[in-house]
Design goal:
With 305 residues, the protein is α/β, with parallel strands linked by helices. The chain is 37% helix and 21% strand. The protein has 11 helices and 11 strands. Strand 5 (99-102), helix 3 (108-120) and strand 6 form a beta-alpha-beta unit. Helix 9 packs parallel to helix 10.
């Protein structure tokens, strides 16, 4: 029976983001299926362990060698990943697989997979979930702005260091894709720069599904909902679901909320997700902007209704 490795270089936690959730949903959809291949998923975690889902699916949790959590002190609050150039344990493990799939192209698992693929002639595929170069540009600029103004202006406005980091990472992704048989693309990302340098026959659309048993029309007691939040019954609701962070548009939404309220619109805005910048959103948005923190799927469905 063939073995497929899927490498997700992010933490498997109780409150995962969309990237991790995507692969969790894949697993859940296959739980009751009798597969003619074995799937092993690799995630990051606080300790090394293996969890068997069924006879065909298992999870491997790997402790990062150089955790990006170390960068939190300088303001990098992105999801945790591994920054080591290679993981020797993973290298040995991947030799036994018939296909390796990576879900990023820049970090430890992806780098290790590429080396294994090349050395042992194992087919490599990859999926592009997040525009990591854009994130890097944001954080590099943020760090440079901590320095004295004359230095930060020189690095940002004169040398364009943040833009160069973004460009270099894009080139690394282009190079990575050259080693891949197929590439799954998240259609919500502006991928035009990448498409120019990739064979169209390599590309597969990365499609996301919705669990209709959870996300469906529900009868919601709206009067009670408005009463709980001390809102007028005719208030319009704006609902944001995701990491509460400026990179996800949360601060921009807070400004929109403030602007609409200043023009007399009766609106209330609710933000649900990992609370990284909720206090800043509240400060910007003012009254009737609520931070709900992380919600389970059923709660999100109720809010949407």
């Amino acid at each position: 029976m063939n073995k497929v490795a899927v490498l997700i270089d992010l933490e498997l936690s109780k409150k995962p983001g969309g990237h991790v959730k995507f692969w969790q949903r894949i697993c859940e959809s296959l739980k009751k299926e009798k597969l003619d291949y074995k799937l092993e998923f690799f995630f990051l975690g606080n300790e090394n362990k293996k969890k068997k889902i069924n006879d065909f699916i298992s999870f491997n949790i790997i402790k990062p060698i150089i955790s990006s959590k170390l960068l939190r002190s300088i303001g990098i609050d992105a999801d945790t990943t591994d920054l080591a150039p290679i993981n020797p344990w993973l290298f040995k493990k991947l030799k036994s697989f018939d296909l390796i799939h990576t879900t990023d192209q820049l970090f430890t698992m992806a780098k290790t997979a590429k080396k294994v693929s090349k050395k042992f002639n194992i087919p490599l595929t990859s999926s592009f979930h997040t525009d990591a170069p854009a994130y890097s540009e944001f954080y590099v600029k943020k760090i440079l702005n901590y320095f004295p103004q004359f230095f930060s202006n020189f690095m940002i406005k004169k040398l364009n260091i943040h833009k160069k980091v973004k460009y270099n990472q894009k080139q690394k992704i282009f190079d990575y894709f050259k080693s891949c048989e197929k590439i799954m693309i998240n259609s919500s990302i502006d991928f035009n720069d990448y498409k120019k340098k990739i064979n169209p026959k390599q590309i597969i659309l990365l499609e996301r599904g919705v669990d209709k048993k959870i996300f469906k029309k529900r009868i919601v007691d709206k009067k009670n909902f408005f009463k709980n939040y001390n809102l007028p019954i005719n208030s319009k609701i704006i609902f944001f679901c995701g990491r509460i962070h400026e990179l996800k548009g949360a601060l921009f939404l807070a400004k929109i909320h403030k602007s609409l309220q200043s023009k007399g619109h009766k609106i209330s805005t609710f933000l649900a997700g990992e609370n990284l910048q909720g206090a800043q959103c509240k400060k910007i948005g003012g009254d009737n902007l609520f931070i709900l923190d992380y919600l389970e799927e059923k709660e999100i469905s109720i809010m949407m209704n």
